[in-house]
Amino acid sequence: MEKGFPQAVAGRLKTLRGEKDRRPFAAQIGVPYNQYTAYERAAKVPNAKNLAKISKATGCNLHWLLTGEGEPLPKPEHIHQPTAEYGGKIRFPVIMTVSADPFESGEGGALDHEFRELDRDTLCFEVNGDSMLPIARPGQCVLCSREQSVSDGDLAVVKLKEAGPFFKRVYNYIEEGRWLLESINPSAPQPPRLVKKDEIEFLYKVVGVLFE
Fold first, then answer.
1. If you classify domain 5-67 with CATH, what class do you get?
2. pLDDT, tens digit, for every residue of 137-150?
3. Which residues contact 191 (CB under 8 A, 6 or more apart)?
4. Under CATH, to which class is 94-210 assigned?
């Protein structure tokens, strides 16, 4: 355990909280306000259960929260290898916008312009909304694989039969036959949504983010 562990964890919690007030942040992570305040004062250290709750609620790297090593928030693994260039720039098929807004208001849609598909396994979606900050901001594009399987904790684009598509972190509840869709922006918390597998039109794994 690192020297000054309570103080170190307190500092990392403050980093996660950012400019948000303590009370709404404590509510977001599911910890009583007085207890959370004690964490930030380094009077107490979160137990394993609460560390896991904090990690899941904020999307932060649990290893970083415990040790300070690595990045606070995981980055999607960029494994796509582009296969062609046009005018010195890589082009991908932007097929539609994908919502990172709350589920009840989020709405994606087909884009009017034409697109080029360089790799038949790879699709590109433009992000609309801020619930997946800091991984992707509005206007950026996420690259998705139609062939790679989606696992617990992956970033994915999910199109429901009645709504979406949405850009979320997903968890597979195998025993219930459902997927949990979760936002990660700690500054704009949104309740997760549990959907049945037969409600899903498609589910594509995010393998990269295009940065300008």
1. mainly alpha
2. 888 888 888 888 99
3. none
4. mainly beta
Asked if residues 37 and 22 have their Cβ atoms less than 8 Å apart, the reply is yes
Residue-wise pLDDT for 81-105, tens only, equals 333 333 344 444 555 566 766 555 4
Domains 5-67 and 94-210 share a fold: no
| Domains in the chain: boundaries | 5-67, 94-210
